[in-house]
Structure formats: structure tokens, C-alpha cells
Design brief:
This protein is α/β, with parallel strands linked by helices. The protein contains 2 helices and 13 strands. The longest helix is centred in the first third of the chain and has 23 residues, at 2-24.
């Protein structure tokens, strides 16, 4: 009986060491942190400050943080992919800070939940200005927000100017 116990103990130790080694040298068991390229901490006291289109795209990597525009952003010459989906909605806070996002284009004629924000839940969106907008989709389509649910707040000076 002692010999069997020793064999089981050795097998357990080998399996444990194998799993430990696998975890140490792979991405299994790790959580990759979101590293915003701009300034700020993503909190209400220190929101991530967006100064470029690339930083605006980074909002899609952390849907629960606080964000604030610090300059006008031009989205010309590239189609925008909405922030937030039905499976992973935007649940953060976005302050446009009275700056303008220009030339928003989304052409997803067969897709649902289309807008600058595709799907938001319990989010706060404020002071956002969109200028020169072209947005197409199937269901739940809007220039600023495709679909909002929960206790979502759209506050202060959110507006869209379409160019015909």
C-alpha cells in the first residue's frame, strides 16, 4: 500500500509541475491588462484623455472606463467599427468635452446595433458632437448610439449634423 501511495504522489507532483511550467511559459492563467496609450487612469477623477483617432479606437479595448476627448477627431478615409456590441456593450463613461468627431462613416447594411456606439448598457454619454455623418445598418441604427439599455444617460449637448 505504501508503494502505491508513493507512485500516486510522484505522478501528482509531476502533473503539478507540468501544469505550473505550462502556466509560467504561456498565456494560460494570465490576464492581459489594457494599456491606454494616452494620459489618464480611466477613472472618474482621471479619465483617459483622447487626442487621436488611434486612442479613440482604444475605447473598444476597455468598455467600462471613463474617457474624455481633448481635441476634435477626424475619422475621414476609414470606416468606423462601432464601440460595443450586444455581447460586449459599452458600460463606461464618455465625455465628448464639447469637441467634435468629424466624418463618421459606417456602412453595415445587414448588421444590427450600428452607430458610433453600437450597443450601450448603463453607460453615460455626454457633450458629444458628430459632424458629417453617414451611417447605414439593418436594425437599431443611430448616428451616436445604435441601441441603449439599462440606466443609460445621454446628457448635455449631444448632437449630430448630417451633411446631405
Amino acid at each position: 500500500m505504501n508503494k502505491r501511495f508513493a507512485v500516486r504522489k510522484n505522478v501528482f507532483i509531476l502533473v503539478f509541475l507540468g501544469v505550473l511550467t505550462l502556466c509560467m511559459f504561456s498565456k494560460i492563467g494570465t490576464i492581459e491588462a489594457f494599456a491606454f496609450s494616452g494620459s489618464g487612469a480611466g477613472t472618474s477623477a482621471s479619465p483617459y484623455e483622447i487626442t487621436t483617432r488611434a486612442q479613440l479606437e482604444e475605447v473598444k479595448n476597455n468598455l467600462s472606463a471613463y474617457y474624455k476627448l481633448t481635441t476634435n477627431i477626424d475619422l475621414q478615409n476609414a470606416e468606423w467599427t462601432p464601440i460595443g456590441t450586444q455581447k460586449t456593450p459599452f458600460i463606461g463613461n464618455f465625455d465628448g468635452n464639447d469637441y467634435t468627431i468629424n466624418n463618421l462613416t459606417i456602412n453595415k447594411g445587414t448588421a444590427d446595433y450600428i452607430g458610433f456606439f453600437g450597443y450601450i448598457n448603463n453607460a453615460t454619454i455626454k457633450n458629444v458632437k458628430l459632424n458629417n455623418v453617414s451611417v447605414t445598418g439593418k436594425n437599431n441604427v443611430g448616428a451616436l448610439v445604435g441601441f441603449a439599455t439599462g440606466k443609460t444617460n445621454l446628457q448635455n449637448n449631444c448632437f449630430v449634423v448630417y451633411q446631405l
